[in-house]
Fold each of these.
Amino acid sequence: MTDDTARPAAPAPAPAPERLDPVRAGGAALSGYVIWGLSPIFYKFLDFASASEIVLHRAVWSVPLLALLIWLAGRGGAAMRLIMDRRAMLLLLASSALIAANWWVFIFAINTGQVLDVSLGYFINPLMVVAVGVVIAHERFGRWRAVAVGLAALGVVNQVVAVGVFPWIGLFLAASFTLYGYIRKTIATDGRIGLFWETLIIAIPSLIALWFIETGPDGRFFEGPVNALLLILTGPMTVAPLLLFIIGARGLHFATIGVLQFIAPTLQFAVGIAYGETFSLAHAVTFGLIWTGLAVFVIDLLRHDRLTRKAART
């Protein structure tokens, strides 16, 4: 026989966050994806600095902005409690390494005139998520999703055979962001809090590295106020689209987010073309195969979402 009076009362479950108006949510998510898509234009203005210097500044200047946002949202206590969760912090250490590498390759590609490869990676990313989800999480993998992934794979093969270039930038960006996303899904915390700890983890060694870079001949921060301002703005450019995405995700269906996510690589593709990057017939075949795969994926995603909502109403 147990003594129920000796047990502490279970805490009341936290109220579910209020669902945001779909129009405002859609505007926020759309704005976030537009910023992500056009961000190569901003980073083009930073070609005076190396990819390493830009990434180091990106982490350092994101920390105070994220700390302010967390404090304004009243989530400071939750952020501090997370540090006591050893498993979560180890996972955040791994996700920090992945996102730092992703940022570096992203900046390197922009600085070396390979924005089309960046867009290729983020077009492949959702299909890679589907493939990895089947292997790791045993998620649904119907016939049409298999077709979508197969078409994207053919696009990569064409890039290697017809174009004669292994698309390592695109594949690395897609793979690193896919793995990053799966690690983050296993950490039960607010997206802002997770990013705060990730950027703080990166920022601590970054400050040390920046001290050597900026006091040496390769540093660009102290060469003038414009250089300094542009490097400082990498913080808001990192935080703003993520915050807008978090706001938008509160009011949108998964299928809507699934469609909106293609805005960013589409804009990146347009930026690459506008800057005169090479786009041959062979490149067109590569992107055509991937775009066809994405069209199949989106149609299947919308169909599945419609059936799910119909079943929920009955």
Amino acid sequence: MKKKEYILHYDMVFGNVLSLIILVLMVIITFVIINLNDSFVFSNLNYDTFIWDFILFYILMFGWMILHEIIHAIAYRLNGAKKDSIVFGVALEKGVFYCKCRDYISKKCVMISLIAPFLVIGVITYVIGFLINSLFLISLSIINICGASCDLMMFVFFLKQKNDIEFKELGFSSPFCLRTSDNLENKKFIGIKDIHLVKDINETIEPPEKKITISKFSWIILTILAVMMLLILLLNIFL
């Protein structure tokens, strides 16, 4: 059967609600584990250096988000995606750091890429955090697990699709395109708010992109945050 192309849009409201639910569950799970484990102590928590710890955590949090996207890219490359098809970006006005694959890839490739950051710097590092008594690592892992809500949502979506399905991303990683022999019109999926059958091939063609794109709004926000962090440091040093 001949494949058709579709453009789909994420339901970001559902994704944000799912992220909040995951956060609440992870906080509860963490609280229970800590209370059941008498040997666990907050070895990384030092009230005398709270400001420095806060700044360090803040920097590590952004690093963790970037690492999340790098892991997506590594999984893409290891499973057949072309190097030139992978681009990165920051669009804080949309609340995202993203790794985008501009060319069609297989179902296996996208599913491994979707789940990899959740497992590697979410589940695995969460467990390691308890093994080494690291509050930093546990907290970073929880943030990553919550941030992977849309990845998990899409992983479940792809589980329900035919094996011949192909995937690529548009825009700031949303919307995205699917090429499949299945008829997706009039179908409903959790986390997907719109499915559009492509009738003009130009709908899925985008101009060339930089390897790394940072929106103007993101530059402004990142600059403001950097200045704020510098002021906090100076106040902590001189007051």
